């Protein structure tokens, strides 16, 4: 027999859990106005990974839909603008070897494919312009260190399309506060010790250590690598793709700025190494830098040395 969905239970916190809770709660009205309640069960003993600091432009609509102002988000999460990614030294390794993935689409992309015309100019010897330079203006904005909007541009509106760089830990805290205080999400801070099944095999509730059974009609697994509902309860196997995805290990550090008014790159910088690449993300208070690499092609010592060389170059060139 069909019955109306009344309670959604999100298992797992962090940005994934709280974004899910916020979208569902906002859709059904603050504090369950249309009868749908949202609960989030989060372990107090599992810290968030907090490495991912880059987003996609759709985050602007997400934040707007759940009722967080852009001003509050920028201030609370040490956030900065992201206008795309600059891939450095991936072909020749030279200082001028880079290309951009901008977030502005090519001019007239829906009417024609500009790539053959750009390639034709390249074949004729005109190699002065990258593809992104030829089809949009965003690479130039990034290279000049400019923003994608003016101070007078309305919140979430853009002159050039953009996403954000953010402090993932502070973002989760902002989402938790907004979801519980504004949207009425019930926060259960406890460990899930068992998953209780209904007769038809659906999940009936999750059993917590201190709060007992948390019942629901729909359960969403946001437990990450733990995979409490999908992996441990339903035995959905993890499918490895390491035959084609070689990058499996990461080293991450936080790098302070030399001065309070140091320039902030409005794009992610991705620099190739012999065994992976180094990301460089500028927040308002620091840079998040890390080396992701293949453990089959790089030892940890080699990865650390490559990261140290990058940081030494950064300090020499930027801090002088």
What are the defining features of this structure?
320 residues; 28% helix; 4-stranded parallel sheet; 9 helices; alpha/beta; 6-stranded mixed sheet
What does this 3D model show about the protein?
By secondary structure, the chain is α/β, with parallel strands linked by helices. The protein contains nine helices and 15 strands. The model has no long low-confidence stretch (mean pLDDT 91).
Count of beta strands: 15
- What class would the helix/strand composition place it in? alpha/beta
| Assembly of the depicted chains | single chain
What average pLDDT do the residues reach?
Answer: 91
Strand order of the largest sheet: 5-4-13-14-15-12
Instruction: Supply Rg.
Output: 23 Å
Overall form: globular
Largest sheet: 6 strands, mixed
What is the first-to-last residue Cα distance?
71 Å
- Number of helices, counting only DSSP H or I runs of 4 residues or more: 9
Encode the helix/strand succession as letters.
Answer: EHEHHEEEHHHEHEEEEEHEEEEH
Ranges where pLDDT stays below 50 over 5 or more residues in a row are none
Measured as a percent range, the helix fraction is 25-40%
Share of residues in strands: 15-25%
Strand-helix topology:
Blueprint: E1 7-11, H1 14-27, E2 37-42, H2 58-66, H3 70-76, E3 80-82, E4 84-88, E5 98-102, H4 115-123, H5 131-135, H6 138-143, E6 163-165, H7 168-181, E7 186-189, E8 192-197, E9 203-208, E10 212-215, E11 218-221, H8 228-233, E12 249-256, E13 268-272, E14 276-282, E15 286-293, H9 300-318
Parallel strand pairs: 1-2, 1-11, 2-7, 4-13
Antiparallel strand pairs: 3-6, 4-5, 8-9, 9-10, 12-15, 13-14, 14-15
